[in-house]
Structure formats: structure tokens, C-alpha cells
Amino acid sequence: MQRTSFLTKTAAFLSFCLFAIATQAWAGGDHLKVYLNNKLIHEQYVGEPVKLSNLQLDKANVNDQLTFHYSHCGKIGTGRKLSIRDDKGGVIREWKFADASGKQSGMVIAVKELLQLKQENLRFFYTATELPKGQLMASFQVTDKTTSWVPGSSVLQFLC
Question: How far apart are CA 15 and CA 10, in angstroms?
Fold first, then answer.
């Protein structure tokens, strides 16, 4: 009788521990959200399969805004920057953002600024004090008529 009670309590305790570890690890992973005019267009967590999206931007979007939210293990980064880089890693354009005081502080970029770039194979990178080497977030194809956006798969290559 005591043996059965001990085994039941042990199994319950182990189940609780596994559940606590699993939910804590998921809640603390790096996370990216991208909005176009406050409408969620892409969301990615570390460990999820890569989601491919395609965003077409043209002159009709000239007054629109893209907002990026990136959290490191559940916390907003410090010294945050978004940059556009060419195939060789050279920085073409960089935006710096103040440290966030709230839970989610977006990094806003005017679509007009992206449409002004006239190069192909551009890459969108996020860097912060917590991620100094940077993280590929998306690739861009900019032409006179449209801008195509495909989220970067390397957003999944690191763990907390």
C-alpha cells in the first residue's frame, strides 16, 4: 500500500516537473513579430518550423509602417538596431532604437524608406546588446515596382 502511494506521488511530482520545465522553456524563447499598419503579418518562435511569407509592397504602401517586435528569452533587448545589408554583409541602411521601458516596444520603419532602396538581395538584420552578431530576420527583393519580403530562416538558429 505504501509502495503504491510512493510511486503515485513520485509519478505526479515528475509529471509536474516536466510540465513546469516545458512551459518555462517555451515562454522564455526568442520571439519575433512583424506588423504592417498594426496588423500582424508574421510571428516566429525559436524551435518552430520555418514559416515562409511573402509581402508585396509598392507605391500604394508608401504611407504604411512596418513594426518589428523582438524579445530575447521573454525580455526586450537593449541597444537595438535594425539594418539592411547587401550580399556581402555591408550595411546599406541602419535604424537605432531607444531601450524599451515596457513589455513590448516596437521598432517602426516607414515602408517609404524601404521602397527608396534600389538594390536586389537585401537582408534585414536585428542586433542588440544581447545579440551582438545580429540575426537575419528577412530577405528583400527591391525593384522599381515592388518589394518582396521573405522571413529569414536563421531566426531559429539560437537558443536562450
Answer: 9
Q: What is the pTM of this model?
A: 0.70
CB 59 within 8 A of CB 107: no
Q: Residue 125 CB: number of other CB atoms within 10 A?
A: 21
User: What residue spans define the domains of the chain?
Assistant: 2-156
Going residue by residue through the chain, which has 160 residues, state the pLDDT in tens, using 9 for 90 and above. Answer: 555 555 454 444 444 434 444 433 445 578 888 898 999 988 888 666 656 566 777 777 889 998 988 888 888 889 999 999 888 888 999 999 999 877 667 999 998 888 888 766 778 888 999 888 888 887 766 665 555 555 554 443 333 3
Q: Across-strand partners of 84? A: 93, 124
Collapsing DSSP states into helix, strand and coil, what is residue 86? coil
Q: How many CB atoms lie within 10 A of CB 105?
A: 18
